[in-house]
What we know:
Helix content is 14%, strand content 39%. It is mostly beta strands. The N and C termini lie far apart (54 Å). Mean pLDDT is 88; it is low at 1-24.
Amino acid sequence: MLNKKTITNILATISLLALSNVSYAKVDFKLEGEVIQGSLLVGQTTPGSQVYYDEAPLKLSRHGYFTFGFSRDDVETHKLYIKTKTGEQLTQYLTPKTREYNIQKVEGIDKKIMQPSPEALERIGQDSIQIRAARAVSSDNIDFAHGFKAPAKGRITGVYGSQRFYNGIPKNPHFGLDYAGPEGTLVKSPAAGIVTLWVPDMFYSGGTLIIDHGHGITSTFLHLSGSKVKVGERVKQGQNVAMIGTTGRSTGPHLDWRVNWHNVRLDPAFALKLPNFHTYKK
Length: 282
């Protein structure tokens, strides 16, 4: 007899398969990505259409690309609605599959970091303002539609969604993918984009770099020892943009790579599974 979890998994798989390369009521529609917590999805429909996600309009490129994603603990059913210029309509309901996350324990964190001073708290607040501003960009770039490549080759030592305990104290879940590597190891841009932030010494994240990939999709790189690019610079996929370090709250040299859709924190591992959606001419 099938249990509830098995039935849920089967339904999620059927729902996912039904989304690939399909057409509903004459609405051309393609969606890549898994319907699961933390996933980044990229879609394509007829250029000039209107696309809504939970009643909010999604940015649609002149090529018909759009994107969105599910947060770590998302259990809601979301409505994706498309209306073409000629009046055809499509409504698709998406409920992300739930996941189980790892628990990690990290010891040896400096007490000054575990118990920040009032001065440090003020600095942390300023860091957060800068990061939010850099992630608030919603440019017309469609670099997110060309797939992602790993920014480093090191051993993966931390995964998205894991709950970490620092010196025995539970903290917020980890929202990145960690790559171990010697300090100074080059970090490559996982997709093309524009640099929107570089700060060498943030309190928690140390050297912090953010790249905008378009439509609210950004990559954030933490604990860097240095940057090879400047704010406002356009970078190519695979271009060397920074160096691995152990700055900020870090117990050893590694890269913490994070992916966001606006303020929704996504799993970089799912971004790496997306195909190059289309080769286009600018």
